[in-house]
Amino acid sequence: MDLGAFTSGLVTGLREGVEAALIVAIICAYLAKTGNQRLFPRIFLGAGLAVAASAVLGIALFVTVGSFPEPYEQLFEAATLILAAGVVTWMLFWMRRQAGSVRGELHAAVDRALDDGSANALAALAFVAVIREGVETSLFLVGQAAAASADGGAASVLIGAVIGMGIAGVIGVGFYHGSRRVNLATFFRWTGVALVFIAAGLLSRAVHELIEIGVINVGTQTLFDVSAVMPHEAAGGSILGQFLAALFGYTSTPEVATFVVWLTYVVVVLALFLRPVKRRPIAAPAPTPVSPA
To answer: Does residue 176 carry a pLDDT above 70?
Structure first.
C-alpha cells in the first residue's frame, strides 16, 4: 500500500466526511429536540442519494482519466487537478466564513420544512447539504487518484478515503448522542491547513502535466535536483519521498514554473486562510420609549 496516497485519501475523506456527517447530525438532533424523530428516514434517504450520486460522479470521472490519447489525457488530467484544487479552495473559505452560522442556518431551514408540512423537503435539505460535500470530495479524490495512479496508488487513495469517511460517520454519531465534544473550529483549522498543501500539490502537478505537452513553455527548466538524497519515484525511491509526493505533490526535480506555482499558492492561500475572522458587530437594541407620566 502507498502510505502517502492512503494518508492523502484519509485526510480528505475524514475532513469532507465530518462536514457532511455533522450537517446530518445537526438536522437529526434538531428534529429529535422538536419531537420529530419519525422524519429521520427521510433525512437518511436524502443523504444516501447524495452519497450515491457523488460516488457515481467520482467513478465516471476516474474511469475517463487515461482513456484519451496524448495530449488529451494530460489535458484532461490537468483540468481535473485544477478543478479539484479550485473547488477545495472555495470550500475552505466558505467554511471559514460560515462555520459560526451554519448550525443556525440549518435549524432555520428545518423550521421552514416543518412549517410547510413536507417530509420531502427535509429529504431535499439533507440531499443538498450532503451533495455539496460529496461533489467536492469526488473531485478532490479523483484528482488525488489520478496523480497517484502512475505509481499504483489510486487504490490506496480510495481505501484511505473510505476509512476516513467511516471515522467521520462515528464522529457524527458521537456528536448526535452528545458522547463527546467536537471542537469544530480547531478541527477545521488544522485539516484546512493540511488541505491547502494538498491542493497546492494538485495544482503543481497540473502545471507539470501542461509542461510535458508543451502548453506551458516558460520556466520549464529544472530548478534543483535532490533525487540523490530523497527521490520521489516509486521505483528505487525513498518512502518519505513517495509519501510527500502523494500527499503534497513533492518532486525531487521540480521545474521552475511548477515550484513557483506551488509556493505562490501556499503562501497566498495559507495567509488568507489563517488571518483572523472579522466578527460582525452586534447591533444595540433600540431604546424602549418611555410613556409620559
So the answer is: yes
Count CA within 13 A, CB hemisphere, residue 264: 9
pLDDT, one tens digit per residue, over 10-43 is 877 887 787 778 778 877 877 777 677 888 888 8
pLDDT at res. 271: 92
Domain ranges of the chain: 3-274
The 8-class DSSP code of residue 191 comes to H
Residue-wise pLDDT tens digits, 190-203: 767 877 888 888 89
Task: Answer whether 133's CB lies under 8 Å from 20's CB.
Answer: yes
69-75, long-range: CB < 8 A, 24+ apart = 70/213, 71/213, 71/214, 71/215, 74/209, 74/210, 74/212, 74/213, 75/209, 75/210, 75/213, 75/215
Angle at 168 between CA 167 and CA 170, to 5 degrees: 65
| Phi, psi torsion values for 229, nearest 5 degrees | -95, -50
Q: Is the peptide bond before 285 cis (omega within 30 degrees of 0)?
A: no
Question: Residue 200 in 3-state DSSP?
Answer: helix
Q: Tell if the pTM clears 0.85, that is, is over it.
A: no
User: Per-residue b/e over 50-87, b at no fewer than 16 CB within 10 Å?
Assistant: bbebbeebbeebbeebeeeeeeebbebbbebbbbbbeb
Q: Does residue 222 sit in helix, strand or coil? A: strand
Using an 8 Å Cβ cutoff, are 2 and 148 in contact? yes
8 A C-beta contact, residue 251 and residue 223: no
Length of the chain: 293
Which residue in the block uniquely carries the three cell numbers 490519447? 69
